[in-house]
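On to our target:
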Amino acid sequence: MKTLSITLVLLALVGLYSFTTLNKKTKSDEGIIFHSGTWQQALDLAKKENKMIFLDAYASWCGPCKKMKRTTFADKSVADYYNKNFINVAIDMEKGEGPMLAERFSVEAYPTFVFIKPDGKVFGKTMGFHNVSEFLELGQKVMKSK
């Protein structure tokens, strides 16, 4: 009876260890990592790292925005590329700094994606849902043209 109890406890521990190990997320598993500070802090970081900013201008009620977050932004290849090459910023254009940035970057629909040079000037802009291959290609075109 004691042996059975010890065996069950060991099996439970092995199962728990396996479950937690297999479900651990790495940085790239989390998708695109978005800057959590202010807009000015993102600009300062872009200058410091000499990287362009990728701005995801979204609204909380926007269906295509939610789909981008759930699918395209969560894709490992997209995340790896954008995390390596851009300072990524996602801002709800209806809250906080959003309305000011929506006006500055002429955001007229959601989602709008704006690529901004480290000096704060707009490099390019596009709108609407993009699947993984389209979004990866977009980022690559931006990097080739900069």
Q: What stands out?
A: Residues 7-28 have pLDDT under 50 and may be disordered. The chain has six helices and four strands.
